[in-house]
Amino acid sequence: VQLAESGGGLARPGGSLRLSCAASGFTFSNFPLSWGRQQPGKELEYVAQITSDGRIGYADFVKGRFTISRDNAKGMLYLEMDNLESGDTGVYHCAVRLSATEGYRGPGTQVTVSS
């Protein structure tokens, strides 16, 4: 299983970024996928999830600002981030859980929101 995030960078408050995650090594369309983030000095936290049949959930702190989507044909997961805040700064990881005991996470992409 390989997960590779891209699309991070520097954005100004109120700006936007689109993160991508390229996945391989498993049957992409069959599994739920998620985004998490890790901020300096903090634990990894849940951001958003999309199930294999398209059901979506978001952490309260991103509702209305972030949009998760997937392209099963391309094996890609996305996170559109709008109206960014300085508190969104962190390393964003995509992840897949294949079973109760088997999960994978990509190395992450850095997002920095600063004026």
Describe this protein's structure.
With 115 residues, this protein is mainly β. It contains no helices and eleven strands. Strands 2, 4, 5, 6, 9, 10 and 11 form a seven-stranded mixed β-sheet that branches. A hairpin with a 5-residue loop joins strand 4 and strand 5. The chain is globular.
Specify Rg, calculated over alpha carbons: 13 Å
What general form does the structure show? globular
N-end to C-end Cα span: 37 Å
On the 0 to 100 scale, the average pLDDT is: 96
Strand content: over 45%
Count of alpha/pi helices: 0
Query: Share of helix among residues?
Result: under 10%
User: Can you summarize the main beta sheet?
Assistant: 7 strands, mixed
From N to C, what is the helix and strand string?
Answer: EEEEEEEEEEE
Q: Classify the secondary structure makeup into a structural class.
A: mainly beta
Unreliable runs:
none
Please give the number of β-strands.
11
Comma- or semicolon-separated keywords:
0% helix, four-stranded antiparallel sheet, globular, mainly beta, 115 residues
Q: What's the short version?
A:
By secondary structure, this protein is mostly beta strands.
Task: List the SSEs and their pairings.
Layout: E1 2-6, E2 9-11, E3 17-24, E4 33-38, E5 44-50, E6 56-58, E7 66-71, E8 76-81, E9 90-99, E10 102-105, E11 109-113
Parallel strand pairs: 2-11
Antiparallel strand pairs: 1-3, 3-8, 4-5, 4-9, 5-6, 7-8, 9-10, 9-11
